[in-house]
Design brief:
By secondary structure, the chain is α/β, with parallel strands linked by helices. Helices cover 35% and strands 22% of the residues. The chain is built from 17 helices and 21 strands. A 6-stranded parallel β-sheet has the order 2-1-3-4-5-6, with helices on both faces. The chain has a 5-stranded mixed β-barrel with strand order 17-18-19-21-20. It has a 3-stranded parallel β-sheet with strand order 7-10-13, with helices on both faces. Helix 6 links the parallel strand 5 (100-102) and strand 6. The longest helix has 24 residues, at 367-390. It binds iron/sulfur cluster. Iron/sulfur cluster is lined by residues 169, 171-173, 176, 178-179, 213-214, 251.
Length: 474
């Protein structure tokens, strides 16, 4: 009988990609995916450590599996990803029925570890080295980039794929756990990346998203020659079959002119840049150890607007970081008002044990103040997004059709016309009526309505006049 695998993924796009690759590797060992926990022989939780809340949710989910494990001790329960690297042995202490703990730098070992547990070897843990106490080369080696051959069936959409170009991070922002759990920054070889993009294109993929924690810091040096992200974009441009790509997430200080010029000059490159600012206050940026002042962020925005006038830019903000005053918060609001981001992801600060921030500063902004600032900034950003989206009414965009819209999947299947969703070259979500055959195609869509999050449109159809044939007598 085929063995069944259940996997739950939380966190960023990097985790989504990791889960896709882990599932593909276990399928090779005869596993089939199930979305029902009780049916599964192996249950994996691919976890995130960025917020404490996400970690606690995993422990609650594990708690609910305790009785299943008691009744079926042969089932294998695994915690993989960032929380596995962050908590290590603690996972076994808090949930003693867990069989497997694997950090993000060791995911390639999962199939063998699962086999070992099946063979009676008991609980298994594979994690990478800590960031301190070893030489950099040894630490780098212990965080392996996990990029086996791609399996198109494992992707949420056959027409889109993530491609990892970099692992880890060396920025050490004081609030962030990523450098600890994902290790030192390391670029993947451009040859491997291009080969993977070619394979994806041959399988019918039309759009790829290049992933890195600070993707625009990408560097790969071999034989004295360094490849930067802009060089990589030129190399990818020659891959036949690929129509569009984008790259996330950018670090403001590394938004170089050569990169902006490549985005401007390469027609397949999406004019969309995600560049988190985090705060508009220099005092906060300093405490966060972001490595730039707000003046430099503003200067970067000017360079983006000058080089790619139609680019959309999105940002992340943390509100209620340690010591943030009303004046600091006002400076963040000023930046949002001035930059008119397409949208912003806004987070209330929550302390992460193991980060410099937790060590150095008190988490002293009361929860209700964080909540109020979060709502205020969100409201402000949403009204900017809505105003700017409204200006797009009447425009026509090439949209890569991704599939049925979320709301249609939720409510509309009973006879309602199919509603599809896709994205523009500027990363706007577009919803329109269509049919199944259009999924995976680029279609011209004219926008007739918009709110803060979505553009609503209709497919531009060509009106073909009937041809008239004269019947002539032989
Ligand atoms: S750049 Fe800063 S916020 Fe982003 S992953 Fe690195 S340490 Fe975390």
């Amino acid at each position: 009988m085929t063995k069944k695998l259940y996997i739950e993924t939380v966190g960023c796009q990097m985790n989504v990609l990791d889960s896709e690759l882990v599932v593909a590797s276990l399928r090779k060992r005869g596993y089939e995916l199930t979305d029902r926990r009780p049916k599964a022989d192996v249950l994996l939780f691919n976890t995130c450590s960025v917020r404490e809340h996400a970690e606690e949710k995993v422990y609650s989910a594990l708690g609910r599996l305790k009785h299943i494990k008691r009744q079926h001790p042969q089932k294998i329960i695994g915690v993989i990803g960032c929380m596995a690297q962050n908590h290590q042995q603690l996972v076994f202490t808090r949930a003693p029925y867990v069989d497997l703990v694997v950090g993000p730098g060791q995911l390639h070992q999962i199939p063998d570890l699962v086999d070992r547990i099946h063979d009676g070897a008991g609980p298994q843990m594979e994690v990478s080295l800590p960031r301190k106490g070893y030489d950099r080369a040894a630490i780098e080696r212990s965080f392996e980039s996990y990029d086996p051959l791609r399996n198109p069936e494992m992707r949420p959409s056959a027409y889109q794929a993530y491609v990892r170009i970099q692992i880890g991070c060396d920025k050490f922002c004081t609030y962030c756990i990523v450098p600890k759990v994902r290790g030192p920054e390391q670029g993947r070889s451009p040859q491997q990346i291009v080969a993977e993009a070619r394979q994806l294109a041959d399988e019918g993929c039309r759009e790829i998203t290049l992933l890195g924690q600070t993707v625009n810091s990408y560097r790969y040096t071999d034989g004295g020659r360094t490849t930067r992200l802009s060089d990589l974009l030129y190399m990818l441009h020659d891959v036949d079959g690929l129509d569009r790509w984008k790259f996330v997430t950018n670090f403001p200080r590394d938004m170089s002119d050569d990169l902006l010029q490549a985005v401007r000059d390469l027609p397949k490159c999406s004019h969309y840049l995600h560049v988190p600012a985090q705060s508009g206050s220099n005092r906060m940026l300093e405490r966060m150890k972001r490595g730039y002042r707000v003046e430099e962020y503003r200067e970067m925005m000017v360079r983006i607007r000058e080089t790619i006038p139609d680019a959309t830019v999105t940002s992340d903000f943390i509100v209620g970081f340690c010591g943030e005053t009303e004046e600091d918060f006002q400076l963040t609001k000023d930046l949002v008002a001035e930059c008119r981001f397409k949208n912003s992801f806004i987070f209330k600060y929550s302390e992460r044990p193991g980060t410099k921030g937790a060590e150095l500063y008190a988490d002293d902004v009361p929860e209700e103040v964080k909540k109020r600032r979060n709502n205020e900034l969100l409201e402000m950003q949403n009204s900017i997004s809505e105003e700017d989206n409204q200006l797009r009414i009447g425009e026509t965009y090439q949209v890569l059709v991704e599939g049925p819209s979320k709301s249609w999947l939720k409510h509309g299947e009973d006879g309602a016309p199919l509603q599809l969703t896709g994205r523009t070259n500027w990363d706007h979500i577009v919803v329109f009526e269509g049919n199944q055959r259009q999924i995976g195609q680029f279609l011209p869509i004219t926008i007739y309505d918009a709110n803060a999050f979505t553009l609503f449109g209709e497919v531009v159809t060509r009106h073909v006049a009937p041809e008239v044939y004269m019947l002539t007598a032989p």
